[in-house]
Amino acid sequence: MEQVYIGLGSNLAAPEQQLDAALHALAQLPDTRLAEVSAYYSSAPLGPADQPRYTNAVARLDTQLAPHILLDHLQAIELQQGRERKAERWGPRTLDLDIILFGERIISDERLSVPHYHMQARPFVLLPLAELCPADFQLPDGRQLADLLSHCPVDPTLQRLHTPQLSAISSVDPDTDD
To answer: What is the CATH code of the structural domain delimited by 2-161?
Structure first.
C-alpha cells in the first residue's frame, strides 16, 4: 500500500456536501482505504474573482492502485458529481480532485504531475496537508513541507471550518438529500 494525498475542492452546488460525497466515494474505491481527512477550509477563488468561495480539504488514502488508475477513478468521481471540464482554468466547479503526493513517486507526464505542481503557493493545499503529515515531512523531491509552509503566501481569506469524522463518511449516502 502506498500513501497518497488527494486535494479536494468545490465551490458549486453545496461545496461541503460535494466534499462529503467525494470522501464517501473515495472510501469505496477498490484496493484503497480512506485513512485520514483534514479539516475543511474556505478561501477566495484562485482565478476569476466573480465566483463563489471554495471549500478545500486533503485526504490521505492507502492504496494499491497504480497512479493513472487512481487518476481515472478520481476523474470518474468528479464526473459523477457534475464536474464539467471547460477551457477556463481555475473556474467554478462542483468538484476537483487532485493527486498531491503519491508515495515517494515523482511523476511527470501529459496526464499527471506529482508532487502537484504549484502546491507551494497554495495555502488551501499546504495547511490541510500539514494537518495529516508529521512536522518533519519531506516530499519525494526533497522539499520539506515546513519550508513550503513558511514560504507560502499568506491568504487572509482562508478560514478553517470543521473536520469531518471518518466514521460518519462511511455511512454517508451521497444519493440522499438529507
So the answer is: 3.30.70.560
